[in-house]
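Posting this for the archive.
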Amino acid sequence: MLRRRSVHKDMADFNGYTAKRLREMAESFAGLSKAFGGNSGETGLSREDGAAAMEAAAAMVCGSCEKCGIRGECRREDGEENYYLYYLLRTFEKKGAVDYEDMPRRFLETCRRKADYLGQLNRNLGRATMNLAWKSRFLESRDAVMVQFREMADILEEFSGRMEQAADVTAALEPEIRSTLWRRRVDMENLLVLQYANQKREIFMTARTTNGRCMTARDAAELLGRAAKGLFRPSRGGKTIITRNAASFRFVEEGNYRMLFGSARTPREGEAVSGDSYTFKNGMPGQAIMSLSDGMGSGERANADSGKVIDLMEQLLETGFSARAALKLVNTVLLLSGGEERPATLDLCLVDLYSGVLEAMKLGAPASFVIGQESVEALESETVPAGVLNPVEPVLLSRKLWDGDLVVMVSDGILDAMPGGEKEGAFCDFLGGLPKAGPQETAEMILAFALSFEGEPRDDMTVLVGGMYEK
């Protein structure tokens, strides 16, 4: 017994050590983010760019001639503002070239190689503009990396906080769990039970059978549920069989709710593939995910763009990233990869199956809707699509769901098909009049209603419906 308590203490100490290391890593990423900070530079051609272009043109064309006096003006170092140079740069930025009428009268009267000088000046200013564009692109990428470092720091800080706030409740549950397993000839060598802020519990144990037989992890989860007075299931990706060889297992407590899903969609007229991509599934323990992305345009290319967004978002959420952090990282990745050329909207809903709380976040996506027992509520947020701006700060929309509530997510093709000028209002009225049905039947009714106005769809149409039900 003393050895087993020692093992449990070691596991708990390791949990604290890991939290401390994560916090130190968060501080390192925050330091890197600050190191990348700084001035983003000029937004247009500077006085130095203009003076260098004129000097280079004079060197190529004028030689030692200074009759027009332009070079003397550019070399002034008395601190006074050179209004002509400012005018010249803004003229080039506006028209893309400097013409005769933009030059001083003295230059037009005295210079014998006006055409040569203007041609060389425009070429030099064109090169300076191109260099400025590359510099701006570099600074944008640097800022995106800086934001990513800062987000990584926040994510590690969040993970560290979760681990530090987890309560070790092993001592209260160990006797009952040990005796329950032993009656089924399962020897538990060590145990760690953590309870998090949302009252969710996780069980980590090392166990083996003593009678030469095997037991499935699912059967062990049922025994743990009886002992701990809860509902547990084996973690995904873990071992599924307890044998006579000791092995480690992880069990997570299930929520009070379950979520069922339904979907319906049709591509734009003339397209074989929809440009919308979506997913609905159970993510982290006690969490349901619904996400929908609408790629720019339609067809296979839009489908590939939206599919990339959905896949990346799904991977981040399953790893344990929060919704806000995942959206911001997806936006950063798309910005660095040139996603602003073909942006994709992103609509995300996460449901906590322990508390029944819905969290919705959007990047350029249309409103989502909650069909409650007495009314229909629209959830909307004015944001740009993913990969357009950096940094981006998603707006969190949170609602409590009750038994029988339905969450409806649609692409803009559905709302655009609604009659009248108030599209969202018309859609809410329709949803409020729907008969009671399951998620799949509801999704099919919504798509059929939208198609009744369009005939042949002028845009991709996708509907996702999630139903919340008590266990």
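The chain has three domains: 47-137, 166-253, 257-470. The CA atoms of residues 58 and 117 lie 7 Å apart.
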